[in-house]
Design brief:
- The protein has 2 domains: about 140 residues, no CATH class; about 100 residues, no CATH class.
- The chain is about 50% helix and about 5% strand.
- Helix 1 crosses helix 7 and helix 4 crosses helix 7.
- The structure holds zinc ion (ZN).
- Zinc ion binds next to helix 11.
């Protein structure tokens, strides 16, 4: 049962919408992207091959954090005017009923603005906020993993930063080893869990021509786990950068093309 998680759908669509808007690289939101990549280590961290907590997880969680902090401060200012109760803060953040953080603070007493700031620090220091971002992040990932257009946009953004990495400057030997002499990530073996995830998401069919690759009806067709943004274009070895293709479509896409499909099979 370890692969099951309870989806609370608390503001999941709200955050998914924010993330997918940011991925369009609209001029209004571009700052959030450069903010995420502001530290050089970030892109090197994302370069690690096939972490279960994918590159997209990291990005989503970061964006949620940015917006949550803003919303939190705005709420507090609003509530503080009316006399703030400790537990109302949690409710407003969706951290009580939705995410069972009620135990964290149970006082009914009125608190001061300094208390609020201390309380925020406490939420940060105890890792409570990070935990919340991670949980909401998992729900947002669940939605966005099915959106290949968003996956392409995300990996295309990361590719721009991968291209800028100066491999000769990398201190850490293991990280340096991930790159080839051209400065792109080396091809690595795709782990079974990543293949299974992509196979089930794409319903065992080629994303581009819908050929059945399940091996149930047609055993002739080989499965290709294709990098949506090719490694030679700065693509990542990340589950968010994979799609299922048949041999023919994989061959056609060879020439360092960045492509996916917006076609999905309906439920019925
Ligand atoms: Zn195909």
């Amino acid at each position: 049962m370890s692969s099951f998680f309870e989806n609370k759908y608390f503001n999941t669509y709200y955050y998914a919408n924010i993330v997918s808007n940011i991925l369009t690289r609209d001029i209004e939101t571009i700052g959030f992207i450069s903010n995420f990549f502001s530290e050089e280590e970030t892109v090197l961290y994302l370069a690690k091959p096939f972490e279960k907590r994918s590159a997209l997880h990291s990005f989503i969680q970061h964006i949620i954090g940015d917006f949550f902090e803003d919303d939190m401060n705005e709420n507090d200012q609003k509530y503080f005017k009316n006399g703030l109760y400790a537990d109302s803060v949690l409710e407003e953040y969706g951290m009580s009923d939705d995410y069972s953080f009620r135990d964290f603070i149970s006082d009914k007493k009125k608190i001061t603005y300094e208390d609020v700031e201390k309380y925020h620090d406490e939420l940060r220091l105890t890792g409570t906020l990070e935990e919340l971002y991670e949980r909401i992040g998992n729900e947002v990932f669940y939605l966005l993993f099915n959106n290949r257009k968003a996956l392409l946009q995300f990996n295309d953004i990361v590719a721009d930063y991968i291209k800028e990495v100066d491999v000769s400057e990398i201190q850490d030997y293991e990280t340096k080893e991930l790159f080839n002499e051209k400065g792109f990530l080396k091809r690595v073996r795709i782990p079974e869990w990543a293949k299974r995830a992509v196979f089930f998401r794409d319903r065992g069919k080629c994303c581009l021509c819908f050929k059945d690759l399940s091996g149930l009806l047609n055993t002739e067709s080989a499965r290709h786990y294709d990098h949506i943004v090719p490694l030679a274009q700065g693509g990542l070895n990340d589950v968010s950068n994979l799609q299922l293709l048949c041999s023919d479509c994989n061959l056609k896409k060879r020439h360092n093309q960045i492509a996916t499909s917006n076609w999905y099979q309906s439920w019925y």
